[in-house]
């Protein structure tokens, strides 16, 4: 969806709108009252086709639902505003978003990517993009290496910040400055922070993408993706592919995700505050070897968080290493009562997992450990439950996992007590 000219926000550098701050935009962008009924909430428009008054003249804005429909348009408008973009396009998943962007590159193109990208992105780059002649080079230190890795064929630089699951950060501006000298586009996967905490386009990125499945929808009940950007040329290319490939979300999913957007600021802030409490408690625990959380002053790239994240917030995701190896990490995830042992992230409910055995099991052990993904690493997605309850849950599960309270079992067996 393109934001119409009167609403368009200039291309960066651009100050935030003085009138519509994030929370107001989250609630109102793309959400006008129905002009006929006054309904404050948009109806779900299930019609796959739209009547035309004469040949080639649709009555309204839409013709056929794959090309555009009212619920997708409303969601795309909301995301364009929240990411300070002129355009946003929604897809059936975060992975389909990645696929559409990679499909827009000509055969023979080269991409430079950070090493610890989302597993599915790594799979697409190495197993699918390569099959249509797009080559991807991975680097663990992109700010240092990018210049040397750029070739005349390089068309795209792919950044995920914070990275998964080690939460290391990339200075988007530093990379974009180098990329733009030779007209290379920078894509930032902003899934881990959501547009509330980070707006990559303001730091020089050309495209920002999200797995909407995570924070934007936020309720673990929709699979969807979105890309946002400012360039008219990109809009033409990506809009064409969105329709031609057809990996688009349903009107119902768009409606649900748009409902999620309206509380994004409340959820992202609370999740981040909760993660900060949990991270501080973990850092103080004698049973914890290391804590990866960008909101901690001890994080080695905390300065980037202060520069790129709203109010220096660390987001809702963190990871930590337990003394006691893989057995302790596994046991921890089986002992928590509020954190549910499951993959995914960004929902209202807290989740925990062991990346080495779950989300990142597909990566060979040496490669994994070189990236900091040891078998004793636990990843947490903090939800919006009470922060003190989350801290107590984590500390209690650590005590059980480390075995210092053997015999003190209090009646709740292994597993999760859903509160
Ligand atoms: C989940 C995720 C994706 C893929 O999104 P899907 O909606 O599951 O296809 C991409 N990037 C990141 C960082 C993710 O967490």
Pick out the low-confidence regions: 4-18, 404-419
Provide the gyration radius in Å.
Answer: 22 Å
Fourth-level CATH superfamily of the largest domain: Type I PLP-dependent aspartate aminotransferase-like (Major domain)
* Strand arrangement in the largest pleated sheet: 3-9-8-7-6-4-5
Number of strands: 14
Named CATH topology of the largest domain: Aspartate Aminotransferase, domain 2
Main β-sheet: number of strands, strand sense, barrel status?
7 strands, mixed
Bound molecules: pyridoxal-5'-phosphate
Question: Approximately how much beta-strand content do the residues carry?
Answer: 15-25%
Enzyme class: lyase
Pfam family, one: Cys_Met_Meta_PP
Family: Belongs to the trans-sulfuration enzymes family.
GO molecular function, one term: cystathionine gamma-lyase activity
Please provide a brief summary of the model.
The protein is α/β, with parallel strands linked by helices and 419 residues long. The chain is built from 14 helices and 14 strands.
Secondary-structure topology with pairs:
Blueprint: H1 22-28, E1 52-54, E2 57-58, H2 70-82, E3 87-91, H3 94-103, E4 110-114, H4 119-128, E5 135-139, H5 142-149, E6 154-160, H6 172-181, E7 185-189, H7 194-197, E8 207-211, E9 225-229, H8 232-245, H9 251-261, H10 264-283, E10 288-292, H11 302-308, E11 317-322, H12 325-335, E12 340-341, E13 351-353, H13 365-370, E14 377-381, H14 387-402
Parallel strand pairs: 4-5, 4-6, 6-7, 7-8, 12-13
Antiparallel strand pairs: 1-2, 3-9, 8-9, 10-11, 11-14, 13-14
Bound molecules: pyridoxal-5'-phosphate.
């Amino acid at each position: 969806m393109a934001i119409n000219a009167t609403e368009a926000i200039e291309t960066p550098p651009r100050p935030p709108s003085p009138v519509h701050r994030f929370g107001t935009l989250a609630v109102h962008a793309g959400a006008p009252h129905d002009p006929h009924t006054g309904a404050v909430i948009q109806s779900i428009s299930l019609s796959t086709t739209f009547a035309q008054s004469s040949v080639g003249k649709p009555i309204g804005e839409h013709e056929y639902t794959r090309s555009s429909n009212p619920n997708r348009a409303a969601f795309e408008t909301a995301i364009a505003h929240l990411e300070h973009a002129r355009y946003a396009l929604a897809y059936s998943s975060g992975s389909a978003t990645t696929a559409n962007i990679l499909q827009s590159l000509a055969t023979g193109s080269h991409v430079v990517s950070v090493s610890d990208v989302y597993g599915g992105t790594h799979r697409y780059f190495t197993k699918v993009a390569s099959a249509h002649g797009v080559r991807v080079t991975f680097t663990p230190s992109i700010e240092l290496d990018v210049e040397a890795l750029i070739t005349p064929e390089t068309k795209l630089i792919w950044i995920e910040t914070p990275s998964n699951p080690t939460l290391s950060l990339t200075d988007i501006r530093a990379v974009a400055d180098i990329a733009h000298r030779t007209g290379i586009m920078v894509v930032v996967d902003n899934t881990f922070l959501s547009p509330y905490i980070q707006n990559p386009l303001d730091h020089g990125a050309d495209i920002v993408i999200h797995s909407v499945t995570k924070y934007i929808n936020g309720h673990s009940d929709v699979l969807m993706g979105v890309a946002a950007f400012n360039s008219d040329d990109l809009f033409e290319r990506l809009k064409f592919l969105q329709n031609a490939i057809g990996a688009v979300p349903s009107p119902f999913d768009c409606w649900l995700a748009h409902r999620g957007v309206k509380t994004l600021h409340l959820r992202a802030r609370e999740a981040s505050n909760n993660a900060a409490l949990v991270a501080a408690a973990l850092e103080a625990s004698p049973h914890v070897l290391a804590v990866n959380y960008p909101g901690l002053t001890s994080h080695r790239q905390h300065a980037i968080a202060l520069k790129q994240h709203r109010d220096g917030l660390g987001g809702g995701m963190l990871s930590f290493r337990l003394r006691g190896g893989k057995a302790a990490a596994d046991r921890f995830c089986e002992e928590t009562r509020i954190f549910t042992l499951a993959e995914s992230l960004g929902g209202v409910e807290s989740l925990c997992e062991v990346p080495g055995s779950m989300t990142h099991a597909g990566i060979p052990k040496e490669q994994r450990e070189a990236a900091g993904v040891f078998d004793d690493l636990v990843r947490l997605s903090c939800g919006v439950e009470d922060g003190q309850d989350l801290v107590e849950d984590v500390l209690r599960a650590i005590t059980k996992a480390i075995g210092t309270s053997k015999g003190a079992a209090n009646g709740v067996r292994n597993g999760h007590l859903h509160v």
